[in-house]
Inverse folding.
């Protein structure tokens, strides 16, 4: 077992266990494992809540709206181009942001609940 929690930023970016920093945190895209396969940390006790969804909505939503306004002002494409372009851009970005935010919030939850 590690002496302390894994570094937060690398563990969150790579989707790794908040204790050892080696075990994969996710089973699928956004589904958290029940326990770390490397160090055995029970991940069910740590919850990210609605934070990852809020991060995805605020961050990616703001970026997408600004980008859509810039594209519309600079190029003036027809409406169907916006309808095809922005879902293709926004959906993967949202999932990526939610994944990193979920890993970061689980890591913070682990760090602050360690003594409990």
């Amino acid at each position: 077992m590690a002496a302390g929690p894994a570094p937060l930023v690398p563990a969150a970016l790579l989707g790794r266990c908040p204790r050892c920093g080696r075990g994969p945190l996710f089973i699928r895209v956004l589904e958290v494992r029940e326990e770390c396969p490397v160090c055995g940390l029970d991940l069910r006790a740590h919850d990210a809540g609605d934070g990852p969804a809020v991060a995805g909505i605020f961050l990616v939503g703001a970026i997408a709206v600004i980008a859509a306004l810039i594209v519309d002002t600079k190029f003036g494409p027809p409406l169907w181009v916006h309808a095809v372009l922005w879902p293709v851009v926004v959906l993967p970005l949202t999932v990526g942001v939610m994944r990193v935010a979920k890993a970061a919030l689980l890591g913070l939850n682990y760090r602050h609940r360690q003594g409990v």
Notes: The CA atoms of residues 23 and 38 lie 5 Å apart. The chain has a mean pLDDT of 92. The chain has three helices and no strands.
